[in-house]
């Protein structure tokens, strides 16, 4: 939680804690003559992490490939050259963040849109602050209605494959589209009036996508289709489909290398421009994408899975589940269908303070008996709850680094009441339009 202030990568403490927790568990069990129970349990947790890690790794490799081919930079350049005003850019970046994040994940989308806001905003710090807050809210909201939009939604989808109760299949997530849209639109509509009605200075730089950029985007979409098809039609884990999709990229990388030395049409007129379009001496390398993956995020996720898995193994999460999902509902005299509602709303608030990954993984480890509507509710709250604070989501933390000094914790905090209004409105919308799922 203190990463912003002490600059200690969040993966370090959780990876250490994972080792300590399981060492203590193994020691206590061994002293009582149970030598293999801890080993079996930790192998189960490790297998669960491996599937998610490989899934995320393939997605990260594709995103890095698109970045290297300058697909995102070309979009940023195109938007900045259009001569839009600050208010128009506010809505354009918000809409793009909302609709790109379900495919490209909320962190990558937020970084891309922040680059647009920073380039267009110049010295107008007020626009940059409000624009980045809008991007964080939109990216998190957009990521909540797609299994590919956020790690938490991916975790719910993967877990539903193993579970028999309250499972959420791929298409069920899209029932959250309207609630997610409300979550973003209400704060955006209010923040709109605080945006200066001015026009930024136009930029002259033109960014050209490098050779293969558009085809890599198509291959990424094909990879997503493969992952979904493997699960829906062949009943295989989606990670197998993602790894198959990685092969598409590897074969295309081979083609780029082999065809790189051929004469490019641009070379006849402009050697420098041709080299820019073609790329580096090695035009594309899949393993470069592996090296540039967000390893801190992947290691943080490893630590979370094993820490929470350890706490679940020795019974703490069972106690927490009984308190949150049974006793709270009974104390408020709620019906059995709605008894989990208070706990699921609190999960979203906690995700803003702690982090949505450990909170959601704890819920999935508890595996309370809930209806589809309640599973979608906790997916929504964990996904969008982090928008209430700048440190509540990976997108917010990343943008504080990218727009250092302009997008800050306290700058975001001033707009927290407005974002909370959208949070509770999205919950109400979900419970209204998806009432049949409860």
Automatic annotation (TrEMBL):
Record-level GO BP terms: sodium ion transport
Main location: membrane
Bilayer-spanning residue ranges: 46-63, 84-104, 170-195, 216-233, 239-256, 299-319, 339-363, 375-395, 415-433
Highest taxon of the lineage: Bacteria
GO cellular component: membrane
Alphabetical list of PANTHER family matching this protein: SODIUM/PROTON ANTIPORTER 1-RELATED (PTHR43269), SODIUM_PROTON ANTIPORTER 1-RELATED (PTHR43269:SF2)
Family membership noted in the UniProt record: Belongs to the NhaD Na(+)/H(+) (TC 2.A.62) antiporter family.
Name by which UniProt lists this protein: Sodium:proton antiporter
């Amino acid at each position: 939680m203190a990463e912003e202030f002490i600059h200690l990568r969040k993966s370090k403490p959780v990876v250490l804690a994972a080792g300590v927790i399981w060492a203590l568990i193994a020691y206590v069990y061994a002293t009582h003559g149970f030598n293999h129970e801890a080993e079996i349990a930790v192998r189960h947790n490790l297998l669960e992490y491996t599937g998610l890690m490989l899934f995320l790794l393939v997605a990260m490799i594709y995103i890095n490939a698109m970045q290297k081919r300058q697909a995102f930079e070309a979009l940023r350049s195109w938007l900045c050259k259009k001569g839009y005003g600050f208010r128009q850019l506010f809505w354009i970046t918000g809409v793009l963040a909302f609709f790109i994040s379900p495919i490209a994940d909320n962190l990558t989308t937020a970084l891309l849109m922040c680059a647009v806001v920073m380039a267009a905003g110049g010295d107008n710090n007020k626009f940059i602050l409000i624009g980045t807050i809008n991007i964080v809210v939109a990216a998190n909201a957009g990521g909540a209605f797609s299994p590919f939009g956020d790690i938490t939604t991916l975790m719910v989808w993967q877990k539903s494959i193993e579970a028999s109760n309250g499972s959420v299949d791929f298409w069920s997530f899209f029932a959250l589209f309207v609630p997610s849209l409300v979550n973003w639109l209400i704060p955006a509509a209010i923040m709109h009036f605080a945006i200066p009605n001015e026009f930024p200075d136009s930029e002259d730089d033109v960014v050209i996508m490098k050779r293969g950029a558009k085809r890599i985007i198509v291959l990424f979409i094909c990879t997503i289709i493969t992952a979904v098809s493997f699960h829906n039609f062949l009943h295989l884990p989606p990670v197998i489909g993602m790894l198959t999709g990685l092969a598409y990229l590897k074969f295309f990388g081979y083609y780029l290398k082999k065809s790189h030395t051929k004469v490019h049409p641009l070379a006849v007129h402009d050697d420098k421009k041709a080299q820019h379009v073609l790329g580096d001496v090695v035009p594309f390398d899949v393993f470069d994408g592996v090296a540039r993956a967000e390893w801190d995020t992947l290691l943080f996720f490893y630590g979370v899975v094993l820490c929470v898995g350890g706490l679940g193994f020795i019974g703490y999460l069972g106690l927490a589940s009984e308190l949150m999902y049974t006793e709270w509902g009974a104390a408020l005299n709620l019906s059995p269908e709605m008894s989990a509602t208070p706990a699921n709303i609190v999960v979203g608030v906690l995700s803003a303070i702690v982090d949505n990954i450990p909170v959601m993984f704890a819920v999935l480890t508890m595996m309370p008996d809930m209806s589809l509507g309640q599973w979608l509710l906790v997916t929504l709250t964990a996904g969008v709850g982090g928008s209430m604070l700048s440190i509540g989501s990976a997108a917010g933390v990343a943008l504080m680094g990218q727009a250092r000094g302009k997008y800050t914790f306290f700058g975001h905090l001033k707009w927290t009441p407005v974002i909370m209004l959208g949070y509770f409105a999205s919950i109400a919308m979900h419970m209204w339009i998806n009432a049949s799922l409860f």
